[in-house]
Amino acid sequence: MAKRLSLASLWLWLLLGGSGCRAAAPQNVLLLLADDAGFEMGAYLNKYCQTPNLDALASRGLLFNNAFSSVSSCSPSRAQLLTGQASHSSGMYGLHQGVHNFNVLPEVSALPNVLRQQSNGSIFSGVIGKKHVGPAANFRFDFEQTEEQHSINQIGRNITRMKDYARQFLAQAKQSHRPFFLLVAFHDPHRCGHITPQFGEFCERWGSGETGMGRIPDWQPIYYDWRNLEVPAWLPDTDVVRQELAAQYMTISRLDQGVGLMLRELQAAGLADDTLVIYTSDNGPPFPGGRTNLYEHGIRSPLIVSSPKSEARRHETSAAMVSLLDIYPTVLEALQLSPQNGSRFSGQSLLPVLQREPKPEESDAVFGSQSYHEVTMAYPMRMVRNRRYKLIHNLNYWADFPIDQDFYSSPTFQQILNATINGQALPWYRTLQQYYQRPEWELYDIKADALERFNLADKPKYKATLKQLQQKLFNWQVDTADPWRCAPHAVLQAQGVFKEHPVCLTLGHEAIQRPKRRVLTQYEQYVLI
Ligand SMILES: [Ca+2]
Asked: Where is the Sulfatase N-terminal domain (predicted)?
């Protein structure tokens, strides 16, 4: 047993059958979550964005190079972390706030509730920062300081305020000798230009100490010179994009300093030696091909897992194919609770990877399921990705890919839009038309084509690969009870006489000729309402 045996951990220890194979006390879990961050950090070889705290965490832990979110939207991603279920299983099909109003299904239990029930109340749970999921009863943390009580910037970007709440939470956990799960969800580096442009596109000026911006005491702003940055290959290399990246990096450095503060609080509370620390991001950066997409930059996730156990791997990278659906069983295992059964939970604990790198298998794969984002953005997509290929099924392929409000008003998208309308060239490998108009099936050889430029779905040579991945994807959809599993060419019948044996019944699309897309010639440029 570890040096500190509290009543709560004694209870758990007894529950689990005493000593033997499980010798240690439960490990606390601190989950540090970024909002729309990608790989803008030194540990992932970004040479410009300064992230000394994340880099230090990475060197104390295991850095994952093949981690993927199963969904590229905020609330559905947080729901996946907290329920262990893909968005189509949990019911969190899109954003939670305001008119979007998405929530998990009534019967879905999330981590704080599961931890409380399974441990008989001995595990202490908390969330500080952006929560963005509901209904409240299904995500009831013991300690909550979120946008439900504060302004989102104060609780998600003011790292001093977040630190103060983390100190309170840790003091309570320590005082009550309870193992804990704490989610610290930063709002950085999310955009804010569409709501509060006076603070900068990414709210990078907010709290910087500049005139009228207020000051966050613990934040030392780092200003980036956009002329000196390198634009990643998936974005247009323009001055506009460079300025956006400089602003985004500034908020990532604020997030990084916030991570440093949290880790120092953990140390100061004397809990660092008993706590597993995880860092990841809910979804990819808000640039074209990023957030709301199942393309690589929408779902590839930074992931660091750092264990204080002496035998755990550290200062290493892992090539294991992992999903953010794996976080949920990881938290349960760290706290020595049993994993949840049922095919809706497709994740696996990451703790064994901390011991030993798994052997790469041909069957290694991760899955994706995106349905909405904003309520107006009905564009369901499903995806399977193995080490080499990715298959995306665009269920509403006849519609144009939807654009969300916050991305629409971004300088990057506005530049692409205006260049397209005015017939000007852009240094970008996609056109807006390609971005909007997607075929039903997209198959990419990621190894040879990291930017997903060449769709192989119609190439005879890849017929067998396509078929195999389609089957694999469909099997996952069936296993996880995806309501969209028969879409778009059939209707799912799963009730009444079909209850025992659900079927996909054809809509007869094969007998109907679709008209060609009409090219718009005249339209209003904008409408004032
Ligand atoms: Ca997000």
From this structure: 27-336
